[in-house]
Write a structure and sequence with these properties.
The protein contains 9 helices and no strands. With 245 residues, the chain is mainly alpha-helical.
């Protein structure tokens, strides 16, 4: 495993690689397995050094990543003539807590409601008694399982991106488009679009849960509309790589 110093040098080396798109990883959905831009992503390239297991090696690796990142930040501050001690003395700005925003509260609550529902109902999981009797998967069943995969993947993703968007919403002029808040809210909106479509497919296959899923869909539609109102320029944000011609 690389030491923090070696990892820092590795990050610098990767950052100089030709063909990478700067910042592409900031506004993606983190679903690398389905992404066509992994060859142009610094985050994906650096993740290849990570251990595949969830054991102690992973925690050692993450610790080294943190230490390497801090070394890089110290270098950057030194090059910019910034004293790290002055940073440590800074008082946090008095800004509204994103956790208190009604948009974040709504999406956070829905995420846990859906998580609980998925845990209780386990859609798509056959019972042990019938698993040997299941016929080969047809196209409709395949779409159903793909839709479920989307539901599981994006359920908590949206609340994280909305939180990030709200955290930086006061740092820029209202008419600026290329801001982190607009970028974060745009990928949240993309995820919301995909979730709404996925839940519609799930509902077609689970009509016995139609009323519950309709409530999820209505809440997702409300969150989507509220996000567009809160961040009216989000859809215009140009994500590096993904939205460029």
């Amino acid at each position: 495993m690389l030491t923090p110093s070696e990892m820092k040098d590795r990050m610098h080396e990767l950052a100089r690689t030709d063909g990478l798109i700067e910042g592409i990883y900031n506004y993606c959905d983190r679903w690398c397995e389905r992404c066509a831009f992994t060859s142009k992503c610094l985050n994906y390239a650096s993740s290849k050094d990570a251990p595949s297991s969830d054991g102690p090696e992973l925690w050692d690796y993450l610790h080294n990543v943190f230490e390497a990142t801090m070394l890089m930040l110290d270098e950057m501050m030194e090059n910019m003539g910034i004293d790290p001690e002055e940073i440590n003395k800074m008082e946090p700005p008095e800004e509204p807590d994103p956790k208190d925003h009604r948009l974040y509260k709504k999406v956070y609550e829905l995420s846990f409601t859906v998580h609980k529902w998925l845990e209780q109902n386990k859609p798509g999981a056959p019972s042990p008694e019938v698993i040997d009797l299941i016929p080969p998967e047809d196209e409709k069943t395949h779409r159903f399982h793909e839709a479920l995969e989307v539901v599981y993947f994006y359920n908590f993703f949206i609340s994280a991106k909305i939180f990030r968007a709200l955290s930086g919403s006061g740092d820029f002029e209202p008419e600026e488009v290329q801001t982190d808040s607009n970028g974060s809210s745009k990928i949240a909106l993309i995820a919301l679009d995909r979730l709404i479509a996925a839940w519609s497919v799930v509902m077609e296959n689970l009509m016995e849960h139609e009323d519950e899923i309709l409530k999820f869909l209505l809440t997702l539609a409300e969150i989507r509309k509220q996000t567009e109102i809160t961040f009216p320029l989000a859809r215009k944000f140009v994500r590096p790589g993904f939205d460029e011609l």
